[in-house]
Amino acid sequence: MKKRVVFILGSTGSGKTALAVKLAKKYKGEIISADSRQVYRQLDIGTGKDGVQLPKSKVKSQKSKLKLKTDKLFQIKSNARYIDNIPQYLIDIVKPEEKFTLFDWLEGAKLKLDDIFSRGKVPIVVGGTGLYAKALAEGFSMSEKLKVKSEKLNPKLKNFTRAELDAMTITQLQTVIQKTKINSKNLDMQNPRRLIRAIEKAQEGTITTKEKPDFESLILAIDLDRKELYERIDKRVDDRFRIGMLEEVAGLLKSGVSADWLKSLGLEYKIISQFIINGGSRLGPKGPLRGSNNNLAKAAAKNKFDEMVQELKWKSHAYARRQLTWLRKQKNVIWIKNFRQAEKLVDHFISR
User: Fold this and answer.
1) How confident is residue 59, by pLDDT bands cut at 50, 70 and 90?
2) Partner of 214 at 20 to 30 A CA spacing, among 112, 149, 281, 326?
3) Is 4-142+210-225+332-351 a CATH 3.30.710.10 domain?
4) Which long-range contacts (CB under 8 A, 24 or more apart) does 67-74 make?
5) For residue 252, what pLDDT band results from cuts at 50, 70 and 90?
């Protein structure tokens, strides 16, 4: 049987996971998450994780029954989340602040692909991080180090430590990218985490190579009306605050997770962390979470919270536009608007 992989891409808030679950139910599929933030434990509401994990007791009982090639494969399986009995893999596999790169994700994704193929299932890769999906579909890999340091490329340019890079503004990181002559064609120049990793790779002297993968790909992207997309994003932001997104970020900071690291994740974690640092840990959707009974103080607190929420919505709209712009530049992407269109394309792809 030929190896075939279905990719479901799209902007934030477009309904990728819901579509993937429906397809997985019909075609005996299993989902691989291509999301650079969902790999982290404890980042649940802000990253939009769906589904539930198996109880640890059940996971342990399964281990003796499974013949897994590596401990890493078992870790991926044991941390899967399930939506209507459909597993999603490569979620909750590393601790906050643990270093995790595109190539770490690729290693796990390839292991999981082989496992899914071996059981006669259809892998469905669901991507909020387009570069992860692109790298898997195009066969990216990383070579050994070339031992070329940035000072040799440009004697005036120093090698930066991670702490120095973390302390830089987005403009400063962009300047370093330009000086190192890094190919920024497929690099999100507004994402500090991606810029920092690109600089680190340049300093290490690593390069990316491609090798044609041993599977065929069907790459679908969800194309919603812009007004509908923005309405979905806004509703999702409101829903996440309602179920505790502010408290999630406050809890992460209280547990010792670095504010700089959370800010580097962008969007929700950046905006909410800054809000909390500026005194917002006392505030909530209905005003102060504790403290003053003064009505003026309550109104001021509510206004600050509402301003932060609106900023998050607007910046999420802008992020969605950037994602769509990037996707439209990619080859072999088929745009769809609903499940019916996706179903027709997947039927043809799997049966041919």
Assistant:
1) low
2) 326
3) no
4) 68/115, 69/111, 69/115, 70/111, 72/107, 72/108, 72/111, 73/111, 73/112, 73/115
5) very high
